């Protein structure tokens, strides 16, 4: 399956991207520390966003198969940049918080955690990016 994304430079380090199948749009801006205004997601912020939303989507798919409602489960992804040897993402720390009582079975927790670590975005990250995923069951 392929999806086409069209993007246009709008000036002042801004970009408007359009999702081909839906026509939905988003904008990006360079971060302040890299000359932008920080008015929107930066391209590397979108990588962090993609990771977090991918993890939640995979958890949703697995939970549906096992008739578990994970509504209210949250993800927090903290992106850290590094400057050496080149400016790039150095770390994406992901914390998944599952509300109390939704998943009490240890075997199901193991299944969900393994699935999250196999999400396509996580699997697509370069091995130089430290990308731990931690689960918290409230």
UniProtKB/TrEMBL annotation:
Listed InterPro entries: KH_dom-like_a/b, OsmC/Ohr_fam, OsmC/Ohrsf
Protein name: OsmC family protein
Gene3D superfamilies: 3.30.300.20
Organism for this UniProt entry: Novipirellula rosea
One Pfam family named in its UniProt record: OsmC
Superkingdom of this protein's organism: Bacteria
